[in-house]
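[#protein-structures] MJ: dropping pyridoxal 5'-phosphate synthase here for a structure pass
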Amino acid sequence: MSIDIGGMRIRYKDKDDTFLETHLVSKEPFGQFKAWFEEACSKKEILEPNAMCLATVSKEGYPSARFVLCKGYGKDGYKFFTNYESRKAKEMAENQNVAATFYWEILNRSVRIEGYVEKLSDEESTTYFHSRPVPSQIAACASYQSTPIESRDILCDREGKLEAEYMIPHKEVPRPSYWGGYIIRPRAVEFWQGQKRSPA
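AK: finished. structure tokens for pyridoxal 5'-phosphate synthase:
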């Protein structure tokens, strides 16, 4: 049975409040993204303005998507970190082409990025890894993304052993070799602003 939700719609901007090209802060993607991202960060209702939906494609051509947190951006691209043994990492190793989308609901705005990924250097990955709270570092070490486990108890046991070893002052958690960063090198960036809704 198909559930009809065709009637679900909201009103975006009024006719007199349409977003025009003259409202752009910059006609260069980085400047415009920076302006929109900073405005999203200023809205307390947006809990994670840096959340982006990352889409990857397997070598067979099957797409998959999930949310990751953008941890840096600039004219060179958009950075994020993950487990190199996860499904997304394996797909990126087979096919470097990716897409990512930011969506800020209360602003009725979205930014789409199409490009390809490159791994960040070991030095940059290590620097970022040690900037994270120690419990987050331990969680990254304990988690084998996309790998089945028999029960949550096994994961908790891994974390418990690592906490006993590293949750002490001045003891550094080594960055695991299977964890690090990527940068999306954009080929295209598209900005979307919700306008006056259509009657249909």
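MJ: nice. The chain is about 30% helix and 30% strand.
AK: one more thing. The first strand starts at residue 51 and ends at 57.
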